[in-house]
Amino acid sequence: MKKIILMCLVALFSVGIANAQEPKKGEKKTVTVEFVTDIDCAGCAKKVTNTIPYEKGVKDVAVDVPTKTVTVTFDPKKTNEQTLIKAFEKIKIKVTETNQK
Fold first, then answer.
1. Which of 18, 59, 93, 97 is the most buried (most CB within 10 A)?
2. Which residues contact 59 (CB under 8 A, 6 or more apart)?
3. Number of domains in the chain
């Protein structure tokens, strides 16, 4: 009897994990990309945080001045890496490399 109950719990737990990993209907898929830039001061970081989050589809922006990286999370149905690179160019920040996470 204990084995049957244990097997049922394991099966229930496995189904729960499988369902948790699948995106649900209505949930939007996002992509996170790390841009290596030429920012070197707090002023440059402020320019990025005041501009890039307002691009269409951008969900989150994190700026790290010491490593000169900007991490952007966005909805791929609304924007892409090339559009974001153009947005950086508009505020005169060069993007030298991108790394998708």
1. 93
2. 30, 73, 74, 75
3. 1
> Per-10-residue mean pLDDT for the chain, 101 residues long?
65 56 65 93 94 95 95 94 94 86 68
d(Cα 79, Cα 32) in Å, to the nearest integer? 12
Contact (CB, 8 A) for 73 and 60: yes
In residues, how long is the chain? 101
**3-state class of 26 per DSSP?**
coil
- What CATH number is associated with residue 82? 3.30.70.100
Structural domain of 53: 26-100
67 vs 92: CA distance, rounded Å: 18
